[in-house]
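So, could you explain the following?
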Amino acid sequence: MADNDTIRLLRECDAGIKMGVSAIDEVINFSSDTRLKNYLKDNKAGHQRIKREITHLLDEYHDTGKEPNPMAKGMSWIKTNMKLAIDDSDSVIADLITDGCNMGVKSLGRYLNQYKNADKQSKDLTKKLMSLEEELVMDMRQFL
């Protein structure tokens, strides 16, 4: 049971990271503020570091991870591109990123509760990812 919960939690983190990196990639070139771009680049690098750790653990379980839900990814893409077509200001970018991070933290919190028997290392990585998302929300506030 612990191994199943561990794998499931790691898969959800993997999908969440892919979603987060994709969201950052969609908006970063619209930013006119160097500080905003740097926050996004730094956060993306943090996601990629955690992704490497998750991939390593998934490899140990002979698992390839998980892709984001295609419907969620598609809806995110539509929302992002529609908002940016109307207004591509830094405040819209900050708003989109804040919404995405908040959804990510909420989902990860739910998965932590759902997969209670996951190992400590996987739970710690999940919490690390949640902290990274929360930190980006704080960084975005100055641009809202």
Q: What stands out?
A: The mean pLDDT is 96. The helical segments are 2-27, 34-60, 70-86, 90-114, 120-140. Residues 34-60 form the longest helix (27 residues).
